[in-house]
Design brief:
By secondary structure, the chain is of the alpha+beta class. It has a domain of 69 residues. It contains four helices and three strands; from the N terminus they run H-E-H-E-E-H-H. The protein has a three-stranded antiparallel beta sheet. Strand 2 and strand 3 form a beta hairpin. The longest helix has 19 residues. It is rod-shaped, with a radius of gyration of 20 Å.
Length: 101
């Protein structure tokens, strides 16, 4: 079994740094087309409900997401749910503009 008995001695094979780099969590910022707080909240909560991801910050049109791996963090940027929510938000705006009152 592989185990590091003394972390103060140099690792000639760079095993520990490689393992730490592979397990590094990822952080990503991305913009969102959502304008209303409701749709931003739905997106932020949906990201946080996805295993291994957490919405850290929502500021105006920018989201900051923490993920267990950098790959997972980058996948959040191209998530289809954000596009679907933007379509729903646009439909809601059009429906409220057509309302007679």
């Amino acid at each position: 079994m592989l185990w590091f008995t003394d972390l103060t001695t140099p690792d000639p094979y760079y095993g520990l740094p490689i393992m730490c780099a592979a397990a590094t969590a990822g952080m990503v910022r991305f913009g969102s087309p959502m304008k209303t707080g409701l749709h931003k909240t739905i997106l932020a909560n949906s990201i946080s409900l996805t295993p291994g991801t957490l919405t850290v910050l929502v500021e105006e049109e920018e989201f900051m997401v923490h993920a267990l791996t950098r790959k997972n963090a980058e996948e959040v940027v191209t998530w289809e749910l954000a596009e679907e929510l933007a379509k729903i938000e646009a439909a809601d705006e059009n429906a409220s503009a057509d309302a007679p009152f």
